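Hi V.,

You were right to ask for the full record rather than a summary. Here it is.
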Amino acid sequence: MKRPALAVASLVRGHAAAMVAIAMCAAAVLAVGIPRLQFKTGQDSLLSSTDKLAVDNVRFQSHFGGDPLLVLFSMTGDKDVTALFTPDNRATMQRLQDDLDASGDYQGVLSPLLIAQFAMEQVRQQMIAQPVKLAADKEAAATAARAASAARGETPAQQEAVAQAATQPVDDAFNAAYGADAKRFLDAGEQTLDNPKFVQFILYGADGKPRPALAGIFPDSRHALMVVRMKGNVTLDAASTSAGAVKDRMPRYQFRDTTVLVAGPPLLIKEINDKMKSALALMAVFAVIIMVLVLSLVFRARWRLLSLPAVLVGCVSAFGLMGFIGIPLTMVTISGLPILLGLGVDFAIQVHSRIEEETFASESSTIGLERTFVRLGPALLVAAAAACIGFLVLQLSSVPLIRDFGSMLAVGAAIVFIVSIVLVSGVVYLRERTRIGAAEAGRARFEVERLVGGITARTVGRIAPIALVAAIVATSGLFINREIPTQTDPEKFVPSDSTVLKDLHVMRDVAGTTNELNLLVETSGMKVTDQAFLDWMAAFENRQRAQHEELRTSNSVASFTSSVTGAPPTTADVRQVLSTSPKPLVDMVVAADSTTANITFAISDRATLAEQRDITAAILRDANPPPGVTVAPAGISVIGIAAMDALGANRDLMSFVALAAIFLTLLAVFRNPVKALAPLFPVVLALGASAMLLYTVGIEYSPLTSISGPLIIAMGTEFNVLLMSRYFEERAAGLAPRQAMATASLRIGRAIMASGLTVMGGFAVLGLSQFPLLESFGKVTALNIGVSLLSTLVLLPPLLVWADEDHHFVNVPSEAAAE
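Predicted structure:
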C-alpha cells in the first residue's frame, strides 16, 4: 500500500490549498441536502412494510383509524357530571364536535353529548319496549302453563288459575331487573337533557354507579371523556400534529364549572418528536464543548483544536449527502451527530499528531507528510473500514430505524474520514512548511504519555495472569450479559417530569387506562352479523376478560349490542342497533362491508410491553375462531411490542457477525491470523467486562443499548489496529519487542487517549438528552468505549510482545517495507 499512500501524499503536497478549498466548497454544496433530510416517524420506521404485522395493521387502520386522543372533562366545586349538560355547555360541546368533524383530520369523535343523546334515545325505546316485552313474556308463560294444565286433564278454571300463577315469576323477574329503573324513570320527569334528574337517570343506574355501557365515557360522577380517534395510516408526525391541534384549540371552548385536560399516546409521541428534533442542535453544541475540553486538556499539538472545525465540515458534508440519497432521520439516527463528531475527531487527531511527529523528527514537512501517509495511512484506513463494517452489521436488524442508523453511521464515517483527513493534512502541511525546525509543543497537562506508558510497562511480560483474568472476565461477562434485563416500559423512555406524561397519568387515574389492544377480525363466507360469529365473539371476549385481569373492558359489535339491549347479541338485534347508532360508534366496531370487525380491549397502562406481548400471545392462542374467520393483532401497542422484540432479537448475532466480518477483513489485509485475531481479543474482553459492570451496578439495557455491541466492536478494533500497527512499525525500525512496545505507547499514546476520550464524549453527550432512551444509550456506550480503551492498553501490549518475542507467531516487516 506504499505506492497509493505516496500518491495521496503527493496530491496533498502539490495541491494542499486547492484540496482544502475543494473540500470546503463540496461541503457547501452538500449542505444544500440538509433541508432535504426527512424525519421518518411512521410505523415503517419500526417494522418493515412487508412484515405481516405491519400489513395487518395497515388494513386495520384503514377501517378503524389510529390511536385515541382523550379529552377529560372534570367538574369543579360540588358539581357532578350533569352540570356538563346545561344548555350553554351542550352548545359548546356540539360546536367542538362539529369543528373536529369538519376539519377532516380525525377518523371519528365520540363526545359525552353524543353518547348522552344516544343513551337518551335508547332509554326512551327501552321504556316503551320493556312493558311490551313484559306483556309478551307473561302471555307466553300463561299459554305454556295453560297448555300443560290441559294436558293433565284439568278443568278450564284450574287451567286459568295455573296460567295466572305462571305470570307471577315473570313479574318478579321484571321488577328485580327493571323495577327500580322504571320508578326512577317515572320520577325523573321531563325526558330531555335540560332536566338534570333525567340526565342522571340515563347516565347512572339505581346503585348510583355509571351504567356499564357508558363507563368508557362517564367513568365516575365527576368526569366525562371525549374520544378523538386519529386517522389511520398517517405518519406519526401527521398524527401528532393533529393531536396537538386538539390541545391548541381547546381554549376556544369555554365550559362552565368544568376543567378540560387533553392527553393520550399521540400527544406523548408529539412531545418525543418535537423535543428530539430540538435536541439535535443542543446535543451538537454540547458535543463541541466536550471535545474542545478534551482536545485542550489531553491533546498535545499546535493548533490542537484544528480537528474540530475540520470534522464539523465533514459532518455537514455527511448529513447533506444523506439528505440527497434519502437516508432518513429517526428518533435513533439523530443521535448519530455527536457520534460522528467523536469518530471524526478521532481520525483527525491521529493525522494531526503524526504529521507533527514525523515533521519534527525529519525536519522536513514533505518527508513528514509522506511518512504519515505511508506509515499511518494504511492502519487508519483499516481502522475506518473496521468501524464501517461494525456499523453495517446493524443491517441484520429487522427494525428499519436501526438499519437506517447503521447506514447513516457507515456513510457518515466514510465521509467524515475523507473530509477530516484532507482538511487536517492540508492545513497542517501548509503550516509546517514555514515552521521547519520549530520546537516541539509543550507537554499536555496530564502527562498522557507517561500514563499510557506506565500501563503498558506493567503489563508487558505478564501475559499469563492477564490472559487468565481476561478469559474469566470475558467468559463471565458474556454469560451474565444474558441476565441483564431490557427495559420495555414505554413510560421509562421519556422524562419523568414530562407535562404530557403527567397529564397521561391523570387521565389514567380517572379512566383506568389509556392503552388499547386491538384485534382485527376478518371473515370469509359469513358476515359479522351472522349468529355463529356473534356467539363466538361474545364468548371469546367474556373468556379473555375473565382470564386476564390486565384487560379492563372490551368493545366489539357483540358486546356493544349487548350493552344496548341487555341481552346476548342476536343477528336481529345487531342489525337494529347498528342501523340506529351514531356513525362514530358503529365505525369503531365494524367495517362498512360487514366482513371486518374490531375487538378493542382496554389494557392496563401498568402492563409493560413484555407483559402485553405475553397477554396478546395468550389471547391469540385461545381465539379458536369459526371456520373462515381470522384474528390478527393490530394497533400501536402491538407495533411497539414487535419493535421491542425485534430490537433485542439479533443482539448477540450482530456482535458475532461484526467480530467475524472484522476478523476476515484484518486477515485479508495483514495475511497473518495472529495479527487478525490480536485486535479482537481486547474487544471481546471489553464486551465481557462492560456486561459485568452493568450487571454489578444494576443498569438495565434499553432497546437502543441492546444493539450497542457492534458499535463497541467497531471502535474498539480501531484503537487496537492503530496501536498494533505502530508497534510493528517500531519493530521494523529495528527495535526489540519490549522496546518497540514502549516506544509505540509513548508516541501514539496521547493520540489514542485523546481519540478514545473524544469518542466517549460523542456518546456521553447523549447522556445530556432529556430522554432516558437516548440518555441510557449514550451513558452505557460511553462507558463501554472507556472499558474498550482500557482493554486495549492492558491486554494488547503483552499479547503482541508474547506472540512476537517468545513464539514468533507474527511476521515482522523489514525497515524497507515499513518505508
